[in-house]
Amino acid sequence: STSIFVLEYKTKTDAAKARNVLFCVFIRFYIVYHNLISSALSLSSVLTLCNHNAAALKMKSDHCAQGWKFFSGKCYYFSTDEETWNASRNACVDKGGDLVIVTSPMEQDFLKRSKPGSGSEFYWIGLTDAVVEGEWHWLDGTKLSQTPRYWAGNEPDDWKGDQNAHPEGEDCAVMELSSDSYLLLDAFCNEESKKHKHVCEAKAGM
């Protein structure tokens, strides 16, 4: 009878150990399963975000014609050829826009970041004092704010050329763009020897 009792005790003990082992295996499986589910949900969220961003980028690029850059509801075109101010404006109008009107520091930063190539370059913009000397207005009629002041040092100076060769003076503005600066200078509007590149601006969805 003692042998039977010992055998029964051993059997119950082994069964208890087996249950403990099975329980531990179940717990480990549950933890692994839970981690896999959490990872899958996290990856799914990341994938959804990536798809959303890709769709947003595609929607933005679709709003602008090829070769134009999108920013804040508008499209911008940086020319590679150099023209006079009037010829540059005509080129922008032919493309469905006009020379750029810069209205905010954010737009200035966008122009600096988006300028093709490296180094500093000059671009015609939609700013002139051709109507009244010294009164600078954007092409939409808005008067240029002097605060903050973006004119380069000693600009605008309305230089009339050597020996007063250009009595009309410098009535059109160029912006000097580089990765870390945005400055305005006045220049001759239609001097063939003083051509510059230009930036066009148009509403998105053109």
TrEMBL record:
InterPro entries linked: C-type_lectin-like, C-type_lectin-like/link_sf, C-type_lectin/snaclec_domain, CD209-like_CTLD, CTDL_fold
Bilayer-crossing regions: 21-43
Residue runs in coiled coils: none
Keywords: Lectin, Membrane, Transmembrane, Transmembrane helix
Superkingdom assignment: Eukaryota
GO molecular function: carbohydrate binding
Keyword field contains Nuclease: no
SMART domains per record: CLECT (SM00034)
CDD domains assigned to the protein according to its UniProt record, in alphabetical order: CLECT_DC-SIGN_like (cd03590)
Occurrences of domain C-type lectin (ranges): 71-192
Pfam families, A to Z: Lectin_C (PF00059)
Identification of the protein by name: C-type lectin domain-containing protein
Organism encoding this protein: Electrophorus electricus (Electric eel)
